[in-house]
């Protein structure tokens, strides 16, 4: 094997459902890269050893998924600010001295997909409503605050979590009462569902869209199904919609570029490949 052959993969438990091998596999083929990206099922109790083995096995890096993102944050040698803010790592790069550097590309993936799909959201300079206050919400509110959104309303079923998040970030975040979440749409340029509600096997998010301005954008980070009940309702009202698949595709870019040395493009062909349609 030539020394320029590059290896990467995704560590998770379970990992069989991950679409990352399809995604990176498509890019490897498309750019003619000599390398491979594999799914690596690693039990939580084995994670540290598996991670430490990566440089020894010649891996250029890896992705990390459920349930290892917080453990990866603790175990890597260095983290960048995106990972530090979230306390979670989803992308690891092995440096030439064999140390591990951790990143979190979820926020970047979220924002790049929004900019690519509905750039008009930003022109409005209006409040944004974020549903949920878990790990995905942290990634989303961080990049929205960086993007200069003047007011980020966080509505969460467990109000104390929204309040804790708002206290941690300070302005422009504010905790919004869950029982009044629909009113939080008033005047907004964007609403983002960061919860699992609407995913296959989960109840739909109950959020009447009547108060949403006609030029507002509705973004659901769920991508199974691609059209959640929330996005279907938005489409019926003629609102711009953004689905969660693009976030997955965009968050993968930085890792691919670092491991394989090519800046990849997110487009319709990649989307089809990841959906298993090619
Ligand atoms: P993730 O890291 O994927 O965001 P998480 O930290 O478990 O996962 O957060 C899940 C989010 O979905 C939370 O905001 C959660 O609300 P609570 O903090 O009240 O648990 C939200 N969520 C999950 N199930 C929900 C439900 N049935 N109704 C409303 N919100 C729900």
UniProtKB/TrEMBL annotation:
Catalytic residues in the record: 69
Q: Which residues bind NADP(+)?
A: 132-136, 156-161, 221, 244
Q: Which keywords label this protein?
A: Amino-acid biosynthesis, Aromatic amino acid biosynthesis, NADP, Oxidoreductase
Xref: Gene3D superfamilies = Leucine Dehydrogenase, chain A, domain 1, NAD(P)-binding Rossmann-like Domain
Q: In which pathway does it act?
A: Metabolic intermediate biosynthesis; chorismate biosynthesis; chorismate from D-erythrose 4-phosphate and phosphoenolpyruvate: step 4/7
UniProt-recorded Gene Ontology molecular function terms: NADP binding; shikimate 3-dehydrogenase (NADP+) activity
Q: Check the record and name the Pfam families matching this protein.
A: SDH_C, Shikimate_DH, Shikimate_dh_N
Where the record annotates domain Shikimate dehydrogenase substrate binding N-terminal, the positions are 10-92
Ranges for the SDH C-terminal domain? 244-264
- The catalytic activity of this protein is classed by the Enzyme Commission as 1.1.1.25
GO cellular component, alphabetical, reads: cytosol
Binding positions (shikimate): 18-20, 65, 90, 106, 223, 251
Q: Which GO terms describe its biological process?
A: amino acid biosynthetic process; aromatic amino acid family biosynthetic process; chorismate biosynthetic process; shikimate metabolic process
Presence of keyword NADP: yes
Q: Quinate/shikimate 5-dehydrogenase/glutamyl-tRNA reductase domain: which residues?
A: 124-194
Q: Which SUPFAM superfamilies does this chain map to?
A: Aminoacid dehydrogenase-like, N-terminal domain, NAD(P)-binding Rossmann-fold domains
Q: What class of enzyme is it?
A: oxidoreductase
Q: How does it assemble?
A: Homodimer.
The UniProt entry, under PANTHER family, shows:
BIFUNCTIONAL 3-DEHYDROQUINATE DEHYDRATASE_SHIKIMATE DEHYDROGENASE, CHLOROPLASTIC, SHIKIMATE DEHYDROGENASE
**Could you say which protein family the record assigns here?**
Belongs to the shikimate dehydrogenase family.
Q: Which NCBIfam families match?
A: aroE, PRK00258.1-4
What's this protein's function?
Involved in the biosynthesis of the chorismate, which leads to the biosynthesis of aromatic amino acids. Catalyzes the reversible NADPH linked reduction of 3-dehydroshikimate (DHSA) to yield shikimate (SA).
For this entry, the protein name equals Shikimate dehydrogenase (NADP(+))
